[in-house]
Amino acid sequence: MTETEIKAPETDPTRIDWPSKQAAAAIPFQVVAGRPVRPGPSTGRTGQGELKHWGERQAADAVVLATCAGTRYLLMIQRGDGHGWALPGGCLDPEETPWEATVRELAEETGLVLTRGDEGVIWTLFPARLVPDPRGTDEAWMVTWPGLADLGEVDLPEVVGADDAVWAAWVRADDVTDLVDDLATTYGGALFSAHVDMIADILKEI
């Protein structure tokens, strides 16, 4: 999406070139009577919602794991929009790949600079997935590419919240229940609802 589209989003979805957007979609979706249809359970809401766009918008999220003194940690950020703690991430820029967006957003929001060539870091790009973003509707939704970087056994790197993040921290993450508990007891925070299932699935897989 261009800067102009972000500043002045199209108000009428029937004027959008849907065939080109469907061709570029990470997850196939239908268009009915000129309006996009979310490829998942209904939210009960229509229009652009808080996302301020129509149809799919792609993002990338950095899933950065590290083990320190036998405990596994996940790098999290506190969002600046009041939606809780989430993975570092954000929307893909035009012509940007999911990998490029993952690395860029990680550095912008936490100060942690990683590249896919870093020795000792195991990278995995998971398939794109529809996320239950509470800001979305049946006609505007987010799809994200989770990019995993496993640092292995290390001293936890220093991180700092920046850009869209007000805080960055390493949170215990043996499983998603452990993560939720540590966020509540250590940081007085809650996990961003759109990331609960995604994080739970990834932590089970690795």
From TrEMBL:
Keyword Calcium: no
Source organism per UniProt: Streptosporangium saharense
Swiss-Prot/TrEMBL keywords: Hydrolase
GO molecular function per UniProt: hydrolase activity
Full protein name: 8-oxo-dGTP pyrophosphatase MutT (NUDIX family)
Gene3D superfamilies linked: Nucleoside Triphosphate Pyrophosphohydrolase
Superkingdom of origin: Bacteria
Classification via PANTHER family: ADP-RIBOSE PYROPHOSPHATASE, DIHYDRONEOPTERIN TRIPHOSPHATE DIPHOSPHATASE
Any Pfam family: NUDIX
Family label: Belongs to the Nudix hydrolase family.
Nudix hydrolase domain location: 55-193
